Amino acid sequence: MVRRVQIGNCGVTYYAEGDPRHPAILFLHGFMGDCHEFKQAIAGLSKQFYCVAIDLMGHGQTHLIDQAPQDAVIVTKQEHYYTIQASAYLVIEFLDFLRLDCCFLIGYSMGGRLALYLTIHFPQYFHKVVLESASAGLSTDTERSDRLAKDQQLAAKLESGDFRQFLEYWYQQPIFASLRSHPHFPELLEQRLNNSPSQLSKSLRNLSTGMQPSLWEDLPKIEIPLLLLAGELDPKFVKINQQMEQLTKGSQLEIVPNCGHNIHFENTELFVEKIQAFFSK
């Protein structure tokens, strides 16, 4: 069931399925996703868990509800709500609103970076964490600067062009090669069209890996059990997650066969099996 609540001056939309008396899982989608990103996986997990998936800021139907005039100062101030820090606080306030004192956490790609940030800064809220095709950010100022410049160009492209053309351009990236060949890929594209290009551009500029602080130095401090998932056909993120596993004492890495970047979509059944096994230990 899709629901909407007000958290501060943000209208937050989320999708929930399962018995609220069961252990809870919070799902965080990737860039251009929404609360329906994990819907197929949730169908397989909701018999055992209370599954909650949120629209992150700039995605789906979650947005600011402050109707103040849009002058330059206000617009600049509002951009803060799209950063990783503000997104993390919004998630924590959302969990407090639902009275979920401690839950399981799953984050995919951009949502995985946010999930890792939450794991480091708000560990008391989470039993175990699954990071799917995620990273700890970029470790040098030069890397962050270069990435931010690229993401700002992409954000401008989002705002000025045809959204469907942007989607086709975005999914030409090598990490999505196996996803493009999936029989239900056209349906995924249609779901992405439910987003607002102007809102996505704000997320892209402010939640870019070029903007987020590097989390690499924090990895050895993590005590929560982590499951790192990377697709066999996504060598860039296999390498990143191998490095993350080496630095995080409570982590285990599983490289998922015949999958690329979007494991939960490319092989939902196997994804669900791995989640059930990890959370049931």
UniProtKB/TrEMBL annotation:
Give the Gene3D superfamilies listed for this entry.
Answer: alpha/beta hydrolase
Swiss-Prot/TrEMBL catalytic activity: 5-enolpyruvoyl-6-hydroxy-2-succinyl-cyclohex-3-ene-1-carboxylate = (1R,6R)-6-hydroxy-2-succinyl-cyclohexa-2,4-diene-1-carboxylate + pyruvate
Kindly give the SUPFAM superfamilies that the UniProt entry links to this protein.
alpha/beta-Hydrolases
Look up the domain of life of the source.
Bacteria
Keywords from the UniProt entry: Lyase, Menaquinone biosynthesis
Is Lyase among the key words of this record? yes
Instruction: Decide whether keyword Protein biosynthesis is in the record.
Output: no
Q: Which residues cross the membrane?
A: none
Residue span, AB hydrolase-1 domain: 23-267
Biological pathway: Quinol/quinone metabolism; 1,4-dihydroxy-2-naphthoate biosynthesis; 1,4-dihydroxy-2-naphthoate from chorismate: step 3/7; Cofactor biosynthesis; phylloquinone biosynthesis
A single Gene Ontology MF term assigned here is: 2-succinyl-6-hydroxy-2,4-cyclohexadiene-1-carboxylate synthase activity
Q: What is its EC number?
A: 4.2.99.20
Q: EC top class, in one word?
A: lyase
List, alphabetically, the InterPro entries matched: AB_hydrolase_1, AB_hydrolase_fold, SHCHC_synthase_MenH
Family statement drawn from the similarity comment of this UniProt entry: Belongs to the AB hydrolase superfamily. MenH family.
Purpose of the protein: Catalyzes a proton abstraction reaction that results in 2,5-elimination of pyruvate from 2-succinyl-5-enolpyruvyl-6-hydroxy-3-cyclohexene-1-carboxylate (SEPHCHC) and the formation of 2-succinyl-6-hydroxy-2,4-cyclohexadiene-1-carboxylate (SHCHC).
Question: Assembly and partners?
Answer: Monomer.
Q: What protein name applies here?
A: Putative 2-succinyl-6-hydroxy-2,4-cyclohexadiene-1-carboxylate synthase
Annotated source species:
Pseudanabaena yagii GIHE-NHR1
Q: Taxonomic lineage of this organism?
A: Bacteria, Bacillati, Cyanobacteriota, Cyanophyceae, Pseudanabaenales
